[in-house]
Structures are given as structure tokens and as C-alpha cells.
Amino acid sequence: MAKPIADLITELRGTRTYKELSEDCGGLPSTARISSMVKNRMSSFPSPETIRGLAKGLGVTELDIVTSCGVSMTLWDDGNTQMPISLPHGAEKLTRSQKNVIVSVVREFMTANQGH
User: Fold this and answer.
1) What share of the chain is helix, strand, coil (3-state, %, to 5)?
2) pLDDT at residue 13 above 50?
């Protein structure tokens, strides 16, 4: 289940500015292009270079970027855009204990936010 590209970028850029994310992407996409992808409706797929750069900067696969772009353009169903938060590529290598800690922290946040 993929998220629209705007959601994926917003979640995985963390505290980085668009400029910092662009630098982490190797300069492609540019700061303005990242901002546009987040704020405007997509009407076409980004270039292969932009897909590679975003994958690098966000720490996900190129397929994740393409899938999210397709969801953004309503080319295919996203299944559930309210799925759990995305984790950077490599998180699958965490131990079961480490994964359990992450789930526990998220549950604590959810409990704390129930009144809001």
C-alpha cells in the first residue's frame, strides 16, 4: 500500500528543509521541484534522474517513488493512504527487539494523542 508522493516526501524528509533534502538527493530534484511535488497535483511522472535522486535522498527504493507517483496521479489504487508511517530503506534489517521498541513508542504517542 503506497502513499501519494507528497505524503512520502513529507514523512521521510524528517526535519530537513527542501534544500537539504535536494542536497541529499544529489541535487535532483531541485528544491523548487520537491516543493512542487508536495504542494501541487502531479500530472506526469518525474524523470528517471529525479526518481533516482528522491530514492537516494529519502532512503527508499526507486520502485517506492514510482509507486507513490502513480498513486498521486490516481493511476492505481493506493489501498489505504492512512497506512502506518513509512520507514527508510534498511529498516527491515532491524532486529525483532528493535522493531518492538519502535512499535511501543508509536503506541505511546497514539495513546497520548487520543484526547486531541
Assistant:
1) 60, 0, 40
2) yes
E strands, the chain, where? none
Contact of 70 with 76, CB cutoff 8 Å: yes
* pLDDT at residue 81, rounded to an integer: 44
Residue with cell 528493535: 98
Does residue 29 register a pLDDT over 90?
A: yes
Alpha-carbon distances of 11 from 60, 95, 114, 115, rounded to whole Å = 12, 23, 21, 23
Cα–Cα distance measured from residue 17 to residue 35, given in angstroms and rounded to the nearest whole number: 10
Which pLDDT tens digit goes with each residue over 43-81?
A: 999 999 999 999 999 999 999 999 999 999 988 765 544
pTM for this one?
0.68
CATH number among 1.10.10, 1.10.260, 1.10.760, 3.10.450, domain 5-83 = 1.10.260
Q: Indicate the domain borders of the chain.
A: 5-83, 88-116
- For residues 57 and 24, the answer to whether their CB atoms sit within 8 Å is yes
